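User: Can you help me understand a structure? I only have the sequence.
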Amino acid sequence: MPLTLLMSGATAGDEVYSWGVLGNVVGVFSMWPLLKRDGLGVQYIAVLLLWCRLVGHDPFRVRSDAFVHLLSTAVHAAMFLLHFLEVVITPPQRYPDLFPVLNVLVSTPVFGLIWLWSIKRSIEVGWALGGLPGSGTEKQVKDADNTSIAGSTSNVLSATATGFRRGPGARAVSLGYESGKVVSGGYRDPRRRAVERLRESSIEMAK
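Assistant: Let's start by predicting it. Here is the structure, written out as tokens:
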């Protein structure tokens, strides 16, 4: 499921899309022995071809410009060959589970490669966003975030202090007293009233 979600933001032909399509196709192919036993062979072929059509994937297209495309071509060829052999050859009585074992031998390496690719992709995305742990890039990003947070906090404190400063001849009123009053707007919660008064004071200062 996460691999399929990654495909939603990818374009046809790029690395994420190719790994996602390969993982989904091999995932369905790995369930073929169970689907065959339940008599769902026609549904298996129909759903798989329809899904490839809907996402714009051509399993018969041969591409060699990237490792994932070479892997996809080899895996699709192995899948077609295995299905063909299963139709024309009857497994010997000594090895009744020959084709299910071959199915596992085709599917498992692909799942392992997808898992390794996902780790590599996570490291790349993490590095691009904030740098690796212990690197100078990560420290620079954290310092910038701390500076921004400190600046925002100072502005809020300054606005609060100025907003609640008494003018000449004004009567001092505590925030708790004001926040506990019921106003026409229906603010019966003192905390909500306090936040609203703080926001109004900040807006008046900005004007």
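Now, to help you interpret it: DSSP finds nine helices and no strands in the chain. The radius of gyration is 31 Å. Let me know which part you'd like to focus on.
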